[in-house]
Amino acid sequence: MEKASVLIKPEAMIFDMDGTLFQTETVLLPAYHKLFAILKEEGLYTAPTPPEERILGSLGMLLEEIWKIVMPDGSDQARKRADELLLQLELEGLQNGNTLLYPGVKDTLHTLKEKGVRLFIASNGLEHYVKGVAAAHGILELFDAVYSAGEHGTVTKVHLVKLLLEQEHVKTAWMVGDRSSDVEAGKENQLSVIGCAYAGFGDGEELYGSDALIRSFTEIQDLYEDA
């Protein structure tokens, strides 16, 4: 755990989903390989399956941006079909019960809620995916609300978090996430940012500007107690 500035106890915490609460690769990678197998069967993509690193490195972006990185040579039809397949295959994977939250997520969220902290999710993912992950792991009821780019049609995480703050009447909050988009969303909305340095999907500069870095999710409870 590293602190770059003094933290003030917030009334709320806003969490990213992938790479923050949820070990995304546990559902994403099986779905990813099935997706490309189907695209090839349907004749929509004929090149070799792109390296896993491409999609893991683009987590946190909007799906439209992800497919441009993952398959820059793909057609618009292939990318649209990939959108449909990814959601379908990930929801199937969640139902199979082989996916994981990061260690300590559920207990830590329970503790924070008991202490009176309002909990929210803000994700650039699709609505059914984000809520599906939370429901599958028994944490959906812990959150006051779940905001996703898929549901609200926002083009950046900055706008999504701004919308959340306005609609939920939140005055003080910590933004908690693992990507530069989370840092930007926090800073542009005058929030303290807690960078999650345990997922490892981004590069070394990903969390530059965070007010604190945590190496495991449970450390956020210590940050709150010390604030």
Write the layout of secondary structure elements.
Layout: E1 2-3, E2 12-15, H1 25-41, H2 52-57, H3 63-70, H4 76-96, H5 105-114, E3 118-123, H6 127-136, E4 145-148, H7 149-152, H8 157-167, E5 173-177, H9 180-188, E6 192-196, E7 212-214, H10 219-226
Parallel strand pairs: 2-3, 2-5, 3-4, 5-6, 6-7
Antiparallel strand pairs: 1-7
Helix pairs in contact: 1-4, 4-6, 8-9
Can you describe what's shown?
With 227 residues, the protein is an alpha/beta fold. The protein has 2 domains: 2-23 and 100-226, Rossmann fold (3-Layer(aba) Sandwich); 25-96. Helices cover 46% and strands 13% of the residues. The protein contains 10 helices and 7 strands. The protein has helices spanning 25-41, 52-57, 63-70, 76-96, 105-114, 127-136, 149-152, 157-167, 180-188, 219-226, and strands at 2-3, 12-15, 118-123, 145-148, 173-177, 192-196, 212-214. Helix 9 links the parallel strand 5 and strand 6 (192-196). It is globular. The mean pLDDT is 93.
Could you give a short description of this structure?
The protein is α/β, with parallel strands linked by helices. It has helices at 25-41, 52-57, 63-70, 76-96, 105-114, 127-136, 149-152, 157-167, 180-188, 219-226; strands at residues 2-3, 12-15, 118-123, 145-148, 173-177, 192-196, 212-214.
